[in-house]
Amino acid sequence: MNRISWDQYFMAQSHLLALRSTCTRLTVGATVVRDKRIIAGGYNGSIAGDTHCSEDGCYVVDNHCIRTIHAEMNALLQCAKFGVPTSGAEIYVTHFPCLQCCKSIIQSGIKAVYYAQDYKNHPYAIELFAKASVKVEKVELNEMVLDLNQREKNDFVGSLLEELKANGVNDDKLRSLHDQAAKIFTTFE
Ligand SMILES: [Zn+2]
Ligand SMILES: [Zn+2]
């Protein structure tokens, strides 16, 4: 039985949160973790009660949407709202944090940032994280961890390849199809 790693579990959670984003410019999710427990989560969205970008369009000033609060900020503010300490916690984000979020993350005592995608990684943010000794690590999400039917699909493609082989498809073609399947399915043999 393959259990998913903690990193993949928390990163998957951030990607789920990103699906709740209301700003169409960028969907971001953030999960705050302490002692391997999720203590808060956030996504890119409007202030509670305000209209959503997804309904009324973005409120763009200087090429930035000013309506939304970033996912990282929302997650940290959720901790503030409910009185949950963030000191020594870690944060999993779908994208490299912007400069404003970087400063808030450091100031709230977060000790590690795991991000799935580079996103305009600001040199000053990189410098500030380093100065504050905040660990920054790229953790890409293996989307297969969210695929509940992986084994069935794996077996199905395997049987299709067997069928092609039985029907005389040439070895080179079969090998290339096999390699493609192995790329898609982490457990393909
Ligand atoms: Zn927006
Ligand atoms: Zn931000």
TrEMBL record:
InterPro entries: APOBEC/CMP_deaminase_Zn-bd (IPR016192), CMP_dCMP_dom (IPR002125), Competence_ComEB (IPR013404), Cytidine_deaminase-like (IPR016193), dCMP_deaminase-rel (IPR015517), Deoxycytidylate_deaminase_dom (IPR035105). GO terms for cellular component: cytoplasm. Its cofactor is Zn(2+). Pfam families: dCMP_cyt_deam_1 (PF00383). GO terms for molecular function: dCMP deaminase activity; zinc ion binding. CDD domains: deoxycytidylate_deaminase. Keywords: Hydrolase, Metal-binding, Zinc. Residues 5-132 form the CMP/dCMP-type deaminase domain. It comes from the Bacteria. Belongs to the cytidine and deoxycytidylate deaminase family. This is ComE operon protein 2. It comes from Litchfieldia salsa. The lineage of its organism: Bacteria, Bacillati, Bacillota, Bacilli, Bacillales.
